[in-house]
Each structure stands twice: as C-alpha cells, then as structure tokens.
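Hypothesis: this fold can be encoded by more than one sequence.
Test: take the structure tokens below, design a sequence, compare later.
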C-alpha cells in the first residue's frame, strides 16, 4: 500500500463531517505529502487526487470548498481541470488555487483567467500555503453566506410578492413584462408564463389597439418614456377575454445610474370598493329621501291640526248665521201684510239660509271628527251607516265636480269590527281619487259607485269603482309605496296610508283594472265574531 493510501486509511475520519473539504491535486507524491503535513490538524477534511481526471470525479462527488491544483500534470493539465470546474454549474463555486513551478507572469495570468483566485509558486513555504488557504477559505465562507442570504432574500421577496393581493408587473424599457406575480396573472386571467415577454399595454389594448382604451394606460407609457412616477385613482384594466374591471394603479420608473431601464406597475382591483361606495351612496340618497318624506309628513300633520282649528272657527259663524235666520223668521211672523208675495219669498229664503247653515255645520262637524287623531279603538259598526256617512262627507266634492256618488250597499250586511274614523278615511280617499280620475272623462255622467257585499264569510268587501283614465303600467309595483303619485299636484301618501290602515284591521286592500276603462279599488273589513 502506498503512503498516501495509508494516510487516507488512517485519517479519513479524523475530521468532523461538516469540516471544510480541501482537494489536493498533484502528480508528485512528495508534493502531496508536504501539503498533507502542512494542512493536517487544522480542522480540514483533506482529499487527494493524482491527476486531472481523478480530480474532476472527486470534485463532483465531494464538492470541496477549495482545490490546491498543480498545473503541470500528464494528460489533463491544471488549466483544463480549472476550466471544466468553472464551466460546470455544480462545481463552479469551488475556489481554485494553482500550485506550480511556472512562475512566469503570463502563466499566472492564464491561471487567473481560467477562474483561479490565487497562484502559489513552487517550491512553496508552509506558512504561505496556510495563510493563502485560510484567506481564500474565509472569502469562500463569506461568499457562501452571502449567496445563502441572497437566496433567502429572493425566496422571501418571492413569497411576499406572491402573497400580495395587489398585482405587480415588472417592465423593461420597452414595456415588455419581465415579472408578474400570481395576483396579477389571476386578475387578468393569464398564466404567468404567458405574460412574460408580452408588451403590457399592447396586450390589454388587444390586436385592434383600441384607441378608446389607450387613455387608461397612458400613464404607464409616460413613466416608461419620461421616467415620471404616475398614480391613477380610478381607471380600467382589461381581462384576457376583453372585459374591463376598475383598478387603482401606480407606475414607478426603474433608474440605474440615471438611466431608465424599465418600470414597476402595481395595481389593485377596486370592483368591490366601488360597489360598496355605490351602495353607501344609495343608502345616503335613500336617507335623504326619508328625511324629505318625514318633513313632508310633518307638514301634513301641521295642516291637519290647522284644518281642525279652521273647522272649529268656521263652525261658530255658521251657528250664528243659523240663529240669525231663526230670529229673522220669528220677527217676520210678527209683521203685518203677511199675505204679500214678497213676504213669502223672504220667509222661504230665511228658511233655506237656516237649513244650509245647519247643513254646513254638520259638514264641519264631520270634518273635525275626521281630522282629529282619536285612539285606535275597534268597535262594532254597521257598514251601511259607515259608508253612508262617508258618502255625505264627499258630497261637497261631488257637487264641485258635477258628479254623482252612487251606493249599492245592502242594509242587512253583518256588523264589522273596525275603527270607524279610520275606515271612513280609507273610503273617502278612494271616492275622492275616483272623482279626480273622472273629472275630465267622457264617462263622468256615470259617476263613482260604492258597493259592498259579504266576502268569504268572515269579511265585508267594499268596492269603489270609477271609469276614469286608469292606472299606470307600473302601478302593481308602486301604487301602495309612500309618495308615489301620478297626479301633477299629488302628495303620494293617501293610498299608502289606506293600505296600512286596512292591514292593521286584518283586512286586504287591492285593485284591478276595469275592463271598460277605469279602476276598481277593493278593501275588506272583518265581521264581528
């Protein structure tokens, strides 16, 4: 057994497994022995090769940190060994120090050009070898640590970029995509591989180069041409299928030594944000509408109180008129010449004044009863009397509109359990609506009809029928909605209030279009158990 085989057999395990490996390559056994003796005991794991071919095999297998390489060897010389080590990615990071008797400058330059980091001339001094080896190993360790740190940073950067919700594009100076994260690919509907190399602007504009779209992407071109950072709050990007989606994006130029080399585009899909903003704006608009409605209702309430006061004030002079007419009649009875035709006419006029004053007083009384805000009290009510009183309330409007109100209400209908004031409000509103709908109609001579009948044993159904202009096409959806009206000066609350009143009485309110023109409104009232 040769001496170096004996050495390997004796010392192959004296160094720990994680010790730095040094490969000694020389075809001269004496030189190898000197190197072994020089480096032994310093914590390195020493490997030996007697020629270039063996050195390459050991280097691929063991991956030493450093190779002390002789140049002049039979077969493959040290230059070729170094060249092959540096060309192979698996061994390119191995540090190479040449050991050679060649000390000409051109030999040293050639050695450094092939990839070696140092050159030790033979014969060498042990201290020099140790110093140079330790220096190069220290440099190697630093390079390895730096390389590992760079790899970690790259991995961290990649993880951060991949985990971001924002899309990120890296562009070269021509606007071609050099990098895209997963979010960018997902939002645009492309794979990352298909994005790389494409021109970002031309890709989103499409083959036709849609000019209408280009304005949204113009800031990217400005950043690439002029090196100016741009941010756009609300614009559009396009999916692969050509559909647009709203984004916020910024474009930042990349400068290297004051030279523009590309740009980074960061963007965020703001579809959900815009949807939320629109929903918020809609809610604010609805809130404003509700405020207006509350103000409207407040005004109507004030008007109701004023109407009650007005009715009270008017009732007093009407009472006085009636009393004066009575007094005038009594005074006329005491006069002579009662057989004068003029006397009879005046007496009759006074009698009519008295009658009409009482009638006006009754109307005012009904208005006051209708306008005041009583407690919601259900009682047993005769539907015939209830509807008759309601029609009397509407007689003034009927005369003003030169129209008649007809009743078809049987007297034997069962009593209903309702709040009479509220039901009068419903019926009166429907009657007045019917007259307004017919005021310019060719069928106004027909008048408004109020009918009632037993319905489903437990209810009395009331129908108010007009032959007016009918309802709008969208009436089914909006008719009972507060403040919806088709009248130029309408307030749009009557039917909504009526609907609520009937519901509070456990009844139903509906309508249907009259087959001959006009509308039929219907509501039900529960009969007394």
């Amino acid at each position: 057994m040769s001496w170096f085989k004996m050495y390997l057999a004796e010392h192959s395990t004296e160094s720990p497994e994680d010790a730095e490996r040094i490969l000694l390559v020389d075809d001269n056994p004496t030189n190898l022995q000197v190197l072994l003796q020089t480096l032994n005991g310093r914590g390195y794991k020493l490997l030996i090769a007697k020629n270039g071919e063996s050195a390459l095999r050991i280097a691929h297998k063991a991956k030493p940190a450093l190779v002390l390489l002789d140049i002049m060897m039979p077969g493959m010389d040290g230059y070729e060994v170094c060249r092959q080590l540096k060309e192979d990615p698996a061994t390119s990071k191995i540090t190479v120090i040449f050991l050679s008797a060649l000390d000409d400058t051109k030999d040293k330059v050639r050695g450094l050009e092939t990839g070696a980091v140092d050159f030790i001339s033979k014969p060498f001094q042990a201290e020099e070898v140790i110093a140079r080896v330790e220096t190069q190993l220290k440099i190697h360790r630093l390079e390895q640590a730096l390389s590992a740190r760079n790899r970690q940073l790259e991995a961290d950067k990649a993880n951060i970029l991949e985990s971001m919700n924002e899309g990120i594009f890296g562009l070269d100076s021509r606007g071609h995509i050099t990098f895209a994260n997963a979010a960018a690919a997902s939002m645009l509907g492309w794979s990352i591989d298909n994005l790389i190399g494409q021109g970002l602007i031309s890709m989103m504009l499409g083959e036709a180069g849609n000019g209408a779209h280009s304005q949204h992407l113009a800031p990217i071109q400005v950043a690439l041409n002029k090196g100016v950072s741009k941010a756009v709050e609300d614009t559009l990007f396009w999916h692969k299928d050509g559909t647009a989606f709203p984004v916020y994006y910024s474009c930042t130029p990349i400068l290297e030594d004051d030279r523009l080399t590309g740009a980074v585009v960061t963007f965020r899909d703001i579809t959900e944000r815009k949807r939320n903003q629109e929903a918020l704006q809609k809610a604010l608009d609805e809130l404003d509408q509700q405020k207006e409605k509350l103000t409207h209702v407040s005004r109507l309430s004030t008007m109701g109180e004023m109407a009650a006061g007005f009715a009270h004030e008017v009732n007093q002079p009407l009472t006085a008129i009636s009393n004066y007419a009575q007094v005038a009649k009594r005074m006329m009875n005491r006069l002579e010449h009662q057989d004068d035709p003029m006397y009879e006419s005046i007496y009759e006029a006074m009698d009519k004044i008295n009658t009409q004053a009482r009638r006006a007083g009754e109307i005012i009384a009904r208005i006051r009863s209708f306008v005041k805000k009583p407690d919601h009290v259900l009682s047993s009510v005769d539907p015939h009397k209830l509807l008759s009183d309601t029609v009397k309330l509407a007689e003034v409007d009927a005369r003003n509109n030169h129209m008649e109100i007809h009743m078809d209400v049987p007297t034997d209908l069962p009593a209903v359990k309702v709040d009479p004031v509220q039901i009068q409000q419903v019926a009166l509103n429907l009657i007045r609506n019917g007259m307004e709908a017919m005021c310019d109609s060719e069928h106004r001579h027909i008048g408004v009809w109020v009918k009632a009948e037993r319905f489903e044993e437990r209810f009395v159904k009331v129908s108010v029928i007009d032959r007016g202009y009918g309802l709008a096409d969208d009436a089914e959806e909006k008719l009972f909605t507060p403040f919806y009206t088709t009248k130029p000066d309408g307030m749009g609350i009557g039917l909504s209030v009526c609907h609520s009143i009937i519901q509070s009485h456990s009844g139903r309110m509906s309508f249907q279009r009259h087959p001959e023109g006009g509308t039929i409104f219907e509501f039900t009232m529960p009969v007394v158990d």
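The two ends are 124 Å apart (CA to CA). Confidence is low (pLDDT under 50) at residues 3-14, 488-493.
Hypothesis status: open.
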